[in-house]
Amino acid sequence: REDDPELYAGLFQRMGEAQCAVWKRFMEEFAEAFCVLRFGDDLGFHTATLLPHDDIRAHILPVYRRITDMVHAKGKPFLLHSCGNLFAMFGDIIELGGIDAKHSNEDSIAPFPVWVEKYGDRIGNFGGIDTDVLCRFDESYIRKYIFDCLDAVKGHGGIAFSSGNSIPDYVPTAGYLAMIEAVRDWRGDR
Question: What are the recorded Gene Ontology BP terms (predicted)?
């Protein structure tokens, strides 16, 4: 960035061109097979974004917008998976990037209800239970955690409840099943 700003900007430009070419072809050939489209691009870590905000605005969000415009042109919503503490610039990610929904949340950054409270009127929020909770706690704790979380976001639009990240193979089966059963019970499905 500092040593060779031209090279730095050029890398983002070339990557953006490649991503847009892939998305253009994908949308032409497969858009009708999907109801929502997404990609993962972890922009942050526990305390901040990985790059300065100005660099994300200048080099990353315009590519997001080109991709989300292609997705929206086919009448589909776009979901961004991004880990990290993005609060300082998440409004720009929504507005400049054109995203319709976000996935990934960790309680160590902010519990799911905080994301829903801040952005639930603008985008859909996917997530809910921190994967760490599924790994470290028993079924009764998981159930209470989920009920508390769902009670806190009730009445806010645009949520899809799941783990805050992927379900890795080290998540105990009992924790995963406790999550599924608790959500079904909270909704009155069982």
Answer: porphyrin-containing compound biosynthetic process
